Amino acid sequence: MVTSRYDIAVLGAGPAGLAAAAAAHQAGKHTVLIDGNPRVGGQYWRHRPGDQGAGHHDWAELRRLLAIVSGADVVTGQQVWHVERTEDGFTLHGPDLRCRTLIVATGGYDRQLPFPGWTLPGVVTAGGAQALLKGQNVLVGKEIVVAGTGPFLLPVAAGLAEAGARVVGVYEAGEPRGFARRPAALLANPAKLVEGAGYLRTFARHRIPYHTNRTVVAAQGKNRVESVTVAELDRHWRARPDTERTLNCDAIAVGYGFTPQLEIPLQLGCAARLDADGSLVATADGQQRASVPGVYLAGEVCGIGGADLSLVEGELAGLHAADALADRPRLARLLRRRRTLRAFAAAMHATYPVKPGWLTWSEPETLLCRCEEITLRTARKAVHDLGASDARGVKLLARPGMGLCQGRVCGYATACLVAHERGRSVTATDLQGMSARPIAAPITLGQLTQLGQPSKED
What sections of 352-453 are H helices per DSSP? Predict the structure, then answer.
């Protein structure tokens, strides 16, 4: 039952959403900011009640944005599970409200690659380990291996060590020296160099080993993780013979980049494309507009680029959605900043690609989809014996992506597997087949029965 109308609704209260809501509210628009978490801030500013910002980056910026959006309506703890277009805007189901213009800033989540033992208790995503630490002050283990690819591994490992865990090692599958081939992007973003140097100082203080071209290729244990196997990788990410080592640990934090959360843009029919990092992203123009009129995009939904870029894109989306374009110097400054940060994001994606050799780490009985317990062997049979030609076909024939997570965990890996078995590259169609969902979040049957009920305003 829809009860409220707004000029602008912002989905997601991370850096992009907060910046968008602040800009729209300051422009005088009746704005609502919505997030499924109990507190605003997203993953970047995830915090506990009473947290004063210790261990957080840019905490002053969060406080500034919170002071602005305090004058707008902020709805937390409610998930938008469906958005439908109406003659005069959009109806949002979950918090049940209407808006003229919609800004989607729903962020992203960890991208995972399966390996033998990855379903053992104690194997968590890098973002999950950080979320538990930031949100509940809980360590996922006492002796932790951090593995995967990308600069996000650095703050995760540093945060765990500062909180008292022993970080056995950080195993970066890629080669960070690739940044050296893109010096302009680095020099234009000196704050990134300073941030990276800070993490390395933390590594030195806690004696955390940092290894490149290596990663976790298997985990062992009975009731939970007891050890991992790490191996050196060749340039295709195949494990080099005779380089495997076994390390004792009780937890693994692993992540291979991020997957944008696109359920709402795809529901609305927004155009999407394959980004440089292999992610499916929603397409935004120079004003942060989606292909669907009245929809704006900001942050990770239109390309993984980090908190600084999300803040800039969010502010631009809020200004354009509110038609608050009189301050030309402000717009010019934001556009320059966006170009600089996008150049850094492009360099990051080129430096930390996910390479197809990861498929060689697994055995035929390794689980691809943990929800439905679908193995790699079963998925391959759907391709070769049943004729599936894309990821959606494998999903329909073998059920990966049909479980509780609806493909959020296994979708990317399934698309990569099918493309590899078909002898081609992953396409946007492959990823969209594992990402489009008519219901964006788990709901009750009671919520479904409210569809079509007249609102108090009707």
Answer: 376-384, 391-398, 411-421, 428-435, 445-449
Torsion angle, CA of 22/154/150/126, rounded to 10 degrees?
Answer: -80
Q: What is the pLDDT of residues 249-274, one digit of tens each?
A: 999 999 999 999 999 999 999 999 99
Contact indicator for 374, 394 with CB cutoff of 8 Å: no
pTM over 0.85: yes
Sign of the dihedral defined by the CA atoms of residues 69, 71, 72, 73, in that order:
positive
283, HSE (Cβ side, Cα atoms, 13 Å): 10
Question: CA–CA separation, 104 vs 17, rounded Å?
Answer: 8
Contact 365/334 with Cβ under 8 angstroms?
Answer: no
Q: Over the stretch 79-95, which tens digit does the pLDDT of each residue have?
A: 999 999 999 999 999 99
How far apart CA 306 and CA 311 sit, in angstroms, is: 9
What is each CA distance from 445 to 3, 404, 438, 448, in whole angstroms?
Answer: 20, 16, 15, 5
CA–CA distance, 426 with 143 (Å, rounded to integer): 36
Q: State the residue for tokens 């360590």.
A: 139
